């Protein structure tokens, strides 16, 4: 918590408690504070404090932008995927969670210093969403046309809602 408050307040090189004037609660030394900050950072990354993370430092995955809408019989997911081949897209459904993963590969190598603007994302991307209704997994269709992925998920038909009256005994 102290690390978050330090970052929020823009305090560097001292503990939040020292900066706020509470000397009795201050860290004993800077090494202890750095250990706590490192543990907090590792915990935030899902690691056990004191252990190196299981993900490589350069692991990076972009988040896919999507539109999700429905009509009377389907949930439809659309996403722009310019430069992605159909074989580089993986779509999976696990219970009510739809996951779309893929990779956009850059075909030419460009040195960092040669870029004037660098806004396009190249590499792995993914997006997972929780579906609001049950769908018929065996009837899901996905198409990629002109750089736009469309996933059509037919809604599962459920029986009509029945009102049940409660009787008093």
Structural notes for this entry:
The protein has 3 helices and 8 strands. With 169 residues, the chain is an alpha+beta fold. The protein has 2 domains: 2-44, no CATH class; 62-154, Immunoglobulin-like, CATH 2.60.40.790. The model is unreliable at 15-20 and 22-29 (pLDDT under 50).
Question: How would you concisely characterize the structure shown here?
Answer:
With 169 residues, this protein is α+β, with helices and mostly antiparallel strands. It has 3 helices and 8 strands, in the order H-H-H-E-E-E-E-E-E-E-E.
Strands, helices and their partners?
Layout: H1 2-9, H2 16-20, H3 30-44, E1 62-63, E2 67-70, E3 74-80, E4 89-94, E5 97-104, E6 123-130, E7 141-145, E8 148-154
What fraction strand?
25-35%
Mean pLDDT: 77
How far apart are the first and last residues' alpha carbons, in Å? 55 Å
* Overall radius of gyration: 25 Å
Main pleated-sheet profile: 4 strands, mixed
Number of structural units classed as domains: 2
Structural class: alpha+beta
Number of strands: 8
Helical fraction? 10-25%
User: What's the overall geometry?
Assistant: elongated
CATH fold-level topology of the largest domain = Immunoglobulin-like
Relevant terms:
single chain, 169 residues, alpha+beta, Immunoglobulin-like, 2 domains, four-stranded mixed β-sheet, four-stranded antiparallel β-sheet
């Amino acid at each position: 918590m102290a690390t978050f408050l330090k970052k929020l307040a823009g305090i560097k090189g001292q503990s939040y408690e020292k900066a706020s004037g509470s000397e009795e609660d201050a860290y004993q030394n800077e090494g202890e504070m750095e250990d706590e900050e490192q543990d907090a950072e590792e915990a935030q990354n899902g690691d056990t404090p004191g252990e190196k993370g299981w993900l490589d430092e350069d692991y990076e995955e972009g988040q896919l932008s999507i539109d999700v809408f429905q009509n009377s019989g389907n949930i439809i997911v659309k996403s722009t995927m310019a430069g992605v081949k159909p074989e580089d897209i993986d779509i999976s459904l696990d219970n009510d969670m739809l996951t779309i993963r893929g990779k956009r590969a850059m075909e030419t190598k460009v040195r960092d210093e040669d870029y004037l603007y660098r806004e396009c994302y190249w590499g792995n991307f993914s997006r997972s969403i929780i579906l609001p209704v049950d769908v018929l997994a065996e009837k899901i269709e996905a198409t990629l046309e002109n750089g736009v992925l469309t996933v059509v998920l037919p809604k599962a038909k459920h029986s009509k809602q029945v009102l049940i009256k409660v009787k008093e005994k």
